[in-house]
Design brief:
Blueprint: H1 2-12, H2 18-22, H3 29-45, H4 48-71, H5 77-90, H6 93-96, H7 104-118, H8 126-129, H9 136-147, H10 153-162, H11 167-183, H12 188-202
Helix pairs in contact: 1-4, 3-4, 9-11, 10-11
Protein name: MazG family protein
Length: about 210
């Protein structure tokens, strides 16, 4: 990691790369999302050799943001690493402490309880608990889980029959489909991504239309 950080400092420093020097936390946002998505694609395709490279691209984003923050004296990579190490130890008392858990479900409930305590047991607003950078289907799925909503095929059909032919109508249908998927333990975002990938692979080569 130190070699990667040194390279980023060189790219950002005098005589470095003009493009890298111009970047900010804000300008790098789409690249962070894109690199994470490409890593997910490699996992979905079972391409473990490519996954190593894609995870390297994700790690590059961590280094990039860390060096920018270092220049601004806001934080360093050491702070990033220390934060996640301390969090993992703190939220796994059954591994690093004396607590015991019966199964993975209890692990999750313990994690959530510790997380709430870290925030002073102050409930966070739903908008604070669902990242705005998520894909639209994933964000809707998380919102529905917070609301305890689970859908059915019949509800999807009912929405299809009544939704207006507008952006809002389309959104209503998509939300109903996400709820239907969630009721069956299906991640709508991943399901659509896999479906789209299959369609792309079936398209004939050549041409942009």
């Amino acid at each position: 990691m130190q070699e990667l950080l040194s390279i980023m400092r060189r790219l950002r420093g005098p005589g470095g790369c003009p493009w890298d020097q111009e970047q900010t936390h804000e300008s790098l946002r789409p690249y962070l999302l894109e690199e994470a998505a490409e890593a997910v694609d490699a996992i979905t395709a079972g391409e473990t050799a490519e996954l190593a490279g894609e995870l390297g691209d994700v790690l590059l984003q961590v280094a990039f943001h860390s060096v920018i923050a270092e220049e601004n004296s806001s934080f360093t990579y050491a702070d990033v690493e220390r934060h996640i190490v301390e969090k993992l130890v703190r939220r796994h008392p059954h591994v690093f402490g004396d607590a015991t858990v019966a199964d993975s479900r209890e692990v999750v409930s313990t994690w959530q309880a510790i997380k709430a305590a870290e925030h002073g047991d102050r409930p966070r607003r739903p908008a604070q608990r669902v990242p705005s950078g998520l894909g639209a289907l994933s964000r809707e799925a998380q919102t529905q889980r917070l609301a305890g909503h689970r859908g059915t095929r019949a509800e999807v059909q009912a929405v299809l029959n009544t939704a207006p032919d507008s952006g809002e109508g389309i959104a209503q249908v998509l939300a109903a489909v996400v709820a239907w998927a969630g009721a069956h333990g299906i991640d709508a975002e991943l399901a659509l991504r896999e479906h789209t990938q299959q369609r792309l692979e079936a398209l004939p080569e050549g041409g942009d239309t």
